[in-house]
UniProtKB/TrEMBL annotation:
Pfam families: Acetyltransf_3
PROSITE patterns linked to this entry: GNAT (PS51186)
Similarity field: Belongs to the acetyltransferase family. RimJ subfamily.
InterPro entries reported for this sequence: Acyl_CoA_acyltransferase, GNAT_dom, N-acetyltransferase
Domain N-acetyltransferase: 1-123
GO function term, MF aspect, one: acyltransferase activity, transferring groups other than amino-acyl groups
Species in which this protein is naturally found: Rhizophagus irregularis
Keyword annotations of the record: Acyltransferase, Transferase
Residues in the signal sequence: none
Protein name, UniProt field: Acyl-CoA N-acyltransferase
């Protein structure tokens, strides 16, 4: 995980990679196999810094420089709650593509919630 800091070096958020296995309830066996062998991207930024493109830039940097160049991953997964439009926008601006809706896939506050599954693939010819 990496800190996101403002121009005064104050902590304003983070971005990080995590292993996705067994974090989500996946029904389809093919999706489950794909998911269990992948890394996801997570991020947060303080309210006053939202909408400025800071998180999109950080996500793009971590995917391209760490996930693809250093870890040699072929893709990174992004998961957002269906109602979190700002998070959808972060992923789309960072080059992620929406794959599918996963119904009742994540437990939050004691209830199962629907999430969108996004993927960013390493570009053909990108340094391995």
């Amino acid at each position: 995980m990496w800190a996101i800091r403002n121009s005064n070096e104050e902590f304003i958020g983070y971005v990080g990679l995590y292993q996705t296995n067994e974090k989500y309830v996946i029904e389809d066996d093919q999706d489950k196999k794909f998911f269990n062998d992948s890394y996801g991207i997570g991020y947060y930024i303080s309210l006053e810094y939202r909408g400025l493109g800071i998180v999109s830039s950080a996500v793009n940097l971590v995917c391209n420089e760490i996930a693809f160049k250093e870890l040699h991953l072929n893709y990174v997964v992004g998961i957002t709650f269906v109602d979190n439009e700002r998070s959808h926008n972060v992923l789309e601006r960072s080059g992620f593509k929406l794959v599918k809706l996963l119904k009742n896939a994540f437990k939050k506050s004691g209830e199962m919630r629907d999430v969108y599954w996004f993927i960013k693939e390493r570009e053909v010819g990108q340094i391995q």
